[in-house]
Amino acid sequence: METNKAKPKRPEHLALKAVPAIPQVDQSKSDMASTIYSHYRSGLSNFRTTLSEHRTSLSEYRTDLSSERTEMSMRRTGMSFQRTRMSAERTLMSVIRTSLSLISFGFTIYQLFEKLHTAGTLANPNAGHNFGITLVLMGIGMLIVGIIYHLQFMLGLRHERTEMYNDGLIYAQSRFPTSMTLIVALLLLLFGLVAIFSMISGSGPLG
């Protein structure tokens, strides 16, 4: 698409002369009166032509302004896709923070009751174990749902952006970069799965 366009220039104000006055002729000399009136009509025609040309220039100027406004609207719409993408990234970050809190808090509770049981302070740590496992499972489940929702939303956003670009409605020159937030979410999901496996089986890197 053409992006480097000169800014439209407004036509200069038209310095109009007064409308030619109706000539006074001698009615007894018809040939001379006809010639004078013919010249007068030619002057009026030139006057109307000047006005018409100026109106045409103004119309072209308005058309150029309309095209410029349309281009600005297309750019704003393209940027709105980027803002929507960043909003989706922030939503996934919120899911990551909540999931991380649940997983880490659940794992900490599990380890605390496990240490108390090993030290002989608690005879039956099952309640604490179950509570910790439940928190970790809730964090993992929330993270999975958040990742799936993020992927579906971004695929739909990319598809809509591509359709609008193909229809010539937006420029879509800026690309969608790789989502670092999604990568962090996947790593956290892997950590959560390893943690829950270690907690349930009693073995593994976190057991």
The geometry reads as rod-shaped
- The multimeric state of the shown protein is single chain
Output mean pLDDT.
78
How would you classify the helix and strand content by structural class? mainly alpha
Task: Provide the helix percentage.
Answer: over 70%
Uncertain residue ranges: none
User: What's the gyration radius in Å?
Assistant: 39 Å
The major sheet is characterized as: none
End-to-end distance: 59 Å
| Secondary-structure element order, N to C | HHH
Assess the beta-strand content as a share of residues: under 5%
The tally of helices reads: 3
Number of strands: 0
What does this structure look like?
With 207 residues, this protein is mainly α. It has a domain at 73-201. Helices cover 73% and strands 0% of the residues. The protein contains three helices and no strands. The chain has helices at residues 30-118, 126-166, 180-201. Helix 1 runs antiparallel to helix 2, helix 1 (30-118) runs parallel beside helix 3 (180-201) and helix 2 (126-166) runs antiparallel to helix 3. The two termini are 59 Å apart. The mean pLDDT is 78.
Key traits:
207 residues; mainly alpha; 73% helix
What are the SSEs and their pairings?
Elements: H1 30-118, H2 126-166, H3 180-201
Helix pairs in contact: 1-2, 1-3, 2-3
Task: Give the gist of this structure.
With 207 residues, this protein is mainly α. It has helices at 30-118, 126-166, 180-201. It has a domain at 73-201.
